[in-house]
Amino acid sequence: MAGFIGLVVLVGVAGFLSAVRCNPGCKGTDGHPGEAGSPGRDGLSGMKGEKGAPAVSVDGPGDQPVLLRLKGDRGSPGVVGPMGPKGFRGHVGASGLPGEPGPLGQHGRNIGAGQSVSQQEAQFSSFSVIRNDSTYPPFKKISFQSVVVNNPGDFNMTGGTFVCRIPGVYYFTFHSVAKVSMCLSLVADSADDKLTFCDYNSNRIYEHMLSGGAVLKLAANNKVWLESFQDEQSASDTQDIRDKYIIFNGFLLFSNPE
């Protein structure tokens, strides 16, 4: 019986609802928001991103590979190394281009008419004589025993003197070789002073060489000679009889007509 009554109630409600219809212009009230749902599950991991730019610090790049690629400041020069061996000599290069012509020289001066061959030869003067006496040269003008050159004969072997025949400028030189001390003077009667040269040999075992020379301007008949003089030589030096050589040379550089 109770079931029958319930069925009758439901049929009555349905009939009521079907009888109540909403007009097109009617509007219901807004509903209330629902309650928040429970948190969802974590999503899947995403794909790996591309490599970012190098990190930058206040003083510059901090990434080590970047630092290695950067060029640093130039350091101080190192110590100079030892010199290497000399290389092979290179090939001779090609000849260079000819240079420009030089400036014109000064005009020559007239020295008179041309001379014959015999006259030109007369403008030469040269000599070379040797003293090969083993005794010590006395303290005076030196005499010579051998002639190497005496052209055309301006050196007087008898007096040991050169006599100027052609006025001009001459060059005179001498050399001595001995195991004792030696002092020599180059003397010209046209000069006020003598040119003196000394070599002192203290060990008296090895040969010493003494050399000297001078350029002199001479007039006709001026004389030039070589002489030995006393300075600090000992008695044993002057008494020595071992080999000694003195060579006296002279020649005309250019004539100078008076």
UniProtKB/TrEMBL annotation:
Predominant cellular place of this UniProt entry's protein: secreted
Keywords, in A-Z order: Complement pathway, Disulfide bond, Extracellular matrix, Glycoprotein, Hydroxylation, Immunity, Innate immunity, Repeat, Secreted, Signal
GO biological process: complement activation, classical pathway; innate immune response
UniProt keyword Transport, yes or no: no
A Pfam family matched in the record: C1q
Domain C1q per the UniProt entry, residue ranges: 120-258
Endpoints of the signal sequence: 1-22
InterPro entries: C1q_dom, Collagen/C1q_domain, Tumour_necrosis_fac-like_dom
Ranges where the record places region Disordered: 25-63
Location within or outside the cell: Secreted, Extracellular space, Extracellular matrix
GO cellular component: collagen trimer
Keyword tRNA-binding: no
Protein name: Complement C1q A chain
Native species: Nothobranchius furzeri (Turquoise killifish)
